[in-house]
Amino acid sequence: MNTRDPYTIKNDYGEFVVEGDSLDVIYNFYGHNAPITVGVVNKMSKPLYVDWTKSGIMIDDVPTSYIEPPRVSKGDDSQLTDFTYFLNNPDNLSYVKPYSRLNKQILELTNFNFAKINDSLYNNWNTEADSWGENKKYKTIRYVEADSPIYLRTFLTVYEDSRRIEDAFYYENAFYMSELIKIKGSSPESLAAFRYGRGDFFYVKDEKEKKPSKETKKSSNLLQKVTSVTGQITSWAVEGSKVSKE
To answer: What is the per-residue pLDDT across 36-62, written as a single tens digit (0 to 9) for each?
Structure first.
């Protein structure tokens, strides 16, 4: 993943960092199916609360909360946040101690159709040297934000040690996929970005269907489902990461 936001920097671990005077917000996409891990660094001497019901992602202009918000009965003050409810439901609200960092994996992206991308769209790029010092070539597609197949916006709501909604911090960021690396007959371990656990890298596996043989059908009537086996592995890396250099 990548971003064009001038206020978001990428640290040495490939994480996306939004720095502030009171707190830092950190996004990490490393892993299978791009799990979104949100980090909040509290720089203050008082606690912070992250409201996951008022935080989420927006894809194709459709917002989705990380966690479904609780039902609010009529007569409740809309200007107040019910911290008693949240404290009894810790998945909805996270407590960030003073001068500490909270990491929470929220969700992962799904429904990637990478296998359907035509091979003619790929170019062979040198990415990194192997253990013998020779460059490896992988099939790669590079994107800019305007033509990227994945573009998402994230929004995050953080409260100070207060019950007033107007005391909240609101953060909104945009990310897009800037490079696709296709690997056949190998695993993501062959890429340095995977081995180093970079936050701007994720991978998916193309699950292909394998029909059971006639002998298998005869041996057991229970084996009626199509067996899924891992086929080619499609890996994503971000522009500017260690694996995406020519």
So the answer is: 999 999 999 999 999 998 899 998 788
